[in-house]
Amino acid sequence: MSEYRVVGKSIPRKDALEKVTGSAIYGADIFLPKMLYAAVCRSPHAHAKILSVDIGEAAKVPGVKIILTGKDNIGLFGQFLMDQPIIAFEKVRYEGEPVAAVAAEDLDAAWEAVKLIKVEYELLTPVIDSIQAMKPDSPLLHEKWSDYKMAQAANPVDKSNVCDHFHLKKGDIEAGFAESDIIVENDYDGEMVQHSTMETHGSTVLFDNKGLTIWSPTQSPFMTRDQLAKLFNLSLNQVRIICTHIGGGFGSKYELKTEPILALLALKLKGRPIKMFNTRAEEFLTGGCRGPWRIHAKTGAKKDGTLVAHQFTIYWDTGAYATTGPRVSYNACFASVTPYKIPNIVIDGYTVVTNKHIATAYRGFGVPEVVWGYENQMDLIAEKLNMDKVEFRLKNALDDDDESGTGEILKSVAVKDCIKEAARLLEWDKDFKPGLTPEGKLRGRGIAAFCKLTGTPSSTSVIVKMNEDGTVVVFVSGLEMGQGSTTVIPQIVAEGLGISVEKVTTVPVDTLYSPYDKTTTSSRLTFHSGNAALDAINGIGGINDQIRELASIKWKMDVEQVVIQDGVVIGRDNSGNEKRIVIEDIGKSGIMKEQKPVIATGKYSTSEIYDPPDVETHQSKRPTVMWFWGAQAAEVEIDPETGKVEVTKVTAAHDIGKAINPLGVLQQIEGGVIMGMGHALLEEMIFDDKAILLNGNMVDFKLPTSRDAKMDLKIALVETKPHPEGPYGAKGIGEPGMAPTAAAIAFAVSNAVGKRFTSMPIKADDVLLTLKKMKSSDNHRMGGE
Amino acid sequence: MSTFQYYRPQRFEELWQLMVEYNNAFSLLAGGTDLLVRLRKGRTNSRALIDIKGLQELHGGIQEINGGLRVGALALMGDLVDDARMQQHFPALVEAMKWVGSTQIRNRATLTGNICNASPAADTAPALLVYGARVNILGSLGERTLSLEDFFLAPGRSALNPHEIVQSIDLSYPETPNGSSFLRLTRRRGFDLATVSVACLLIPEAGRIRFGLGAVAPTPLLVIDGSGVLTQTESAQVAKESALAKLAERATPISDVRASKEYRQAMLFALMSKAQHIASERLNQSRS
């Protein structure tokens, strides 16, 4: 039994009603007086010189207020390397890059003008993938990295297309391979996929005497504010970001997208708000994506299955500009050390620019990709040693007090429990014969485990305010984007104060009054904002102290004579008389009447615990405040006549520490599993040999629909290792739900077919043609004997 | 979206006049479920949308004609799917229509519109082909009737002249006993376009089997085997397979973002044999 009253109880999401009834305000719902509309003229080529831009005819369209071109740029932006122009000048580096922007009285006029803009291009050889980009004679997208300002840590390789090189080293890799009894070496890769959020990117921007005001569904209002302030040379009080509801983020709304170009237009049209939302076609070109990736992996083990060496080289195709590519590589390279004990490790991550659409964060920051790579390796070793895949993983899995591949003595590691649970739920121990079933289907199963760190250091702050009736509002600057933060944070606050959760609500995020938070990424919200909220309640001068003070005034006692226990304010005067107020009923007590407002701030920062990784080896005593651990297993059935894969069963076990809202956690994992299934089997962005996207629409980019989500899904919330620093022991779950899904499904497919698939996605075409090839080589062999 | 004029003629003379005036640069609007998507994407050069729903003559719905059914140009797929006569005589067509879009789309989309787009992947075309549908065409110069096979010329191009419209589609009740089926391969379970589709009509007493094939040639394709090999249960498996393979050879699939040529070829054969199998099972059920 839980000792908590609110935490650990499943409650329906607080934002559900307004969302399902359509009353929630999304970015597209913003309509302001005197509002203008913008549209963008985009490059049809992936790599070309801009020879001229003629806006003569376009400017004549009635209603057009202004047209800006590359000449009007005021600077470059970027989260790591400031390499991206607001509007392309001199050359374009991807299909869809803005070459001109129009603001007009109505959207039709804006689009009409866009059509009339004439751009002359001289085509350049496009760099279509990371293989080509890495060649010494490859065209360079950016002539000189050192010409760009560095915004955060990145490690570009000059005179190359590598915008960041990451290197991690532990032990002696050569010695490790030398002592290995078996070594498996293989290549893995995956195609570009898009977040495909229901709401496309867009915003509304106003520039007036107060500065810039932006209505945007951003995951990172404070980062957006910082970057825009720098770009437009404004102070922080001159940039206000008002966050609208986010209609799906998954990382895609983490960086600047439509904001800079609209701000550039707004600067020239003072007092007129300007709005733009991507069409779905534009979204595919410019909304951000998960870049294609390639991995070369070499792993060595002893005969008894003990892992001894692991070398991993990853090439991230991050598209035309660096954006958050270096961070994706950093996070995923750390995760590439695997959830297993391996003494000798080398990880290299090359973040490479190509003339493809810009990649960004995508639920897991590269982790699902590296899991696909290293867990395939684990499967191969287990197969070679004829060991059970679960047993092999359990033998090597990390535990408390083990040293990780990143040099940390780990605490709070439940990956073994997760592997056991995922296997138990799939009935792994039951007799299972892969291959043909009596019904003529091919059956297979697979399991995959993962680890991921949360971005560290980072900080967040929260304001908690108690109203005169005892209800509470929480100013938390992490965004609700479906993960349930507007429910979880109130639960933590209600538990902390000893009141019911119905009394606590969160406030929409507006940088004008909301306190600082880094970003809504990295599955960090419950942990970081939860801790900050508890600090606001329990810290010195926090809500509890303020209540004690007000009670002492009312009761005419010393504040030291007032204590708070289990949601009750208790005062004992010197003569032993006792007074009590139940905090749930504090509104009726009158102690807040005509007093100072009950408002407290709290913060949580991980700078103090963070040990900056060694520059050469990336070894660190504490690279992150929190690791996520988990495992998933899957069973599939394949129709040998069509090659179509049906995912019949998925089991998911995640180290959640302590589930604040179990229902929300289950929903998060369920959503992650379905998303991961899409990646395993359906989704890919397809390009021609000029890096032009061929399937940028919802018909040919195959997202799973609700009908495709039919499967037997069993989820275990593993709470055996509460996080010692987490709020009530909680860990994050936003990204983990998807981290091992694609890998587990892929292994089940490989198991069913009897041949390993290494490229993501595994389409019906691939499965069928593989089956046919196997059949014909079987026939051939039989014929020859 | 481009600018265009909208017209809703009440009489055919008005319609012909508009068609002449806009000389090919117009689109006819019935359900609009494909047209609106094309308009939004700027994939049409039409300067005018001519809404034909004002023409009472086209609102004939589903009528019984001598030995069959006549489907009016504006008959909605949703209504056709629910029609008992359609279900009884043309089950493969009903199955095919159930695949079209979603309930909302079917309540708006017309059967005639689906064939007028002349898409090689039109969901209803294979079934209409196996049932020998005839297209009644009306123009300023008079009326004519074409078999559906002759109606499809190329991807997106039908035999309609710029001054003609489809008035109705005629379907004769197939000879009995018969068995029919429709199969459609898509990459996902939810709404999707066909990678390959196959309709099959089997008439044992004539020794004839008809297949309608979708998304494997520039137009929907009708292939027929009258040898009896595929209608007789006692035929040898090898003979059946070779007859099917011969029919499938008529298809000329291409590789595109939806599937490779090789996969389409393989799937066509697999779907044809499955469709034939289902059709003969249904035939046996109807006999027992």
Task: Tell me about this structure.
The complex is a heterodimer of chains A (785) and B (288). Helices cover 26% and strands 25% of the residues of chain A. Chain A is of the alpha+beta class. Chain A folds into 3 domains: 16-22 and 458-605, Aldehyde Oxidoreductase, domain 4 (2-Layer Sandwich); 31-124 and 198-248 and 253-286, Aldehyde Oxidoreductase, domain 3 (Alpha-Beta Complex), CATH 3.90.1170.50; 293-455 and 613-772, Aldehyde Oxidoreductase, domain 4. In chain A, the strands form 8 sheets. In chain A, strands 3-8-1-16-13-14-15 form a 7-stranded mixed β-sheet, sandwiched between helices. A 6-stranded mixed β-sheet of chain A has the order 11-19-18-17-12-32. Chain A has a 5-stranded mixed β-sheet with strand order 20-21-29-30-31, with helices on both faces. In chain A, strand 26 and strand 27 form a beta hairpin. In chain A, helix 13 runs parallel beside helix 14. The model of chain A has no long low-confidence stretch (mean pLDDT 96). Chain B is an alpha+beta fold and 288 residues long. Chain B is built from 11 helices and 14 strands. In chain B, the strands form 4 sheets. Chain B has a 5-stranded antiparallel β-sheet with strand order 4-5-10-6-7. In chain B, helix 10 (237-248) crosses helix 11. The longest helix of chain B is centred in the C-terminal third of the chain and has 27 residues, at 261-287. Chain A binds chain B through residues 108, 111-112, 281, 641-643, 682, 686, 694-695, 699-700, 702, 704-708, 710, 763-765, 768-769, 772, and chain B through 1, 3, 41, 185, 187-193, 257-260, 262-263, 266-267, 270, 274.
